[in-house]
Amino acid sequence: MGMFADDLVDQYWKLGVSTPAGPVTISCNRYLMNGDSAQAQQAKIQDVRSQAPAKKPGIFVDGAAFTRTYYGKGLPSDLQHVLQVGVDSGVLPSDKDALQGWADSSLGVDCTGFVSAYHFQCAMMPLGQGVNAGCAYFYSIARRLHPQSFIVWTLDEVQPDDVMVWMNENGVETKSPGHIAMIVGKMGNSLKIAESSGADDGQGHRGPHLNQKMWDGTTQKKGGQCLNIGEGVIIIRTINY
Fold first, then answer.
1. The pLDDT of residue 30 is above 70
2. Which of 22, 48, 119, 165 is the most buried (most CB within 10 A)?
3. 126 pLDDT exceeds 90?
């Protein structure tokens, strides 16, 4: 496989773009979930897609990459493509600070987009499904692959690439809208996770970032057992097979 989920966070923070003055690195620091609140962000992404061919005839615009980015499901390479098309066509500024400012107001990825991007890049799922996969998809696949043990109930059993979903054992979401994250590792009673959320990580990163969750036994939420983390979660086995 060759990577862990914290590597994907790093990729979103280090989007390489070529400019006339040389290469620059731009960070994805926002969360973008399709809906009314995302319309201003999405309009800016669409502006690049529609204006670039007119400003630079013949420029290659990968429609699928723009679509995934538009809906908050973009891979790091998709976000890089949007930025590069914008710079090459002159729709976006080539100055690093100005380009970072545009990215901060326009680009983002949601929680399922982040987790799906990781599974795609690790060849655990096809890209087509990766645009639409949600918590229920990962729950159902883990249940099919590991019918007797798809939920992890003890800290000792938790492994990197297991998936944390804000659900109870019956697949009922404990948070609205739902949420999903990747297990990176553990230290003592602390779980290191990689996720994309609207919460600031304390270093200016919203969207993809790392976080920690403390293990605190089990509880009951929405009529089913779950782990006593946040609103209640379960950890399901990796779908790496």
1. yes
2. 165
3. no
Domain's final residue, options 47, 79, 111: 111
Q: Which domain holds residue 192?
A: 133-236
Asked whether residue 241 is domain-assigned, the answer is no
Token output for 28: 């994805």
Distance, first Cα to last Cα, the chain: 11
Helix axis angle, 96-106 relative to 76-89, nearest 10°?
A: 130
The CA distances from residue 33 to 12, 42, 129, 137, in Å, are 16, 10, 17, 18
Judged against a pLDDT cut of 60, whether residue 130 lies above it is answered with no
3-class state of residue 212 by DSSP: strand
Q: Give yes or no for a contact between 175 and 154, defined as CB atoms under 8 angstroms apart.
A: no
User: Quick one: 139 and 107 in the same domain?
Assistant: no
The verdict on 68 and 148 lying in the same domain is: no
Total number of domains constituting the chain: 2
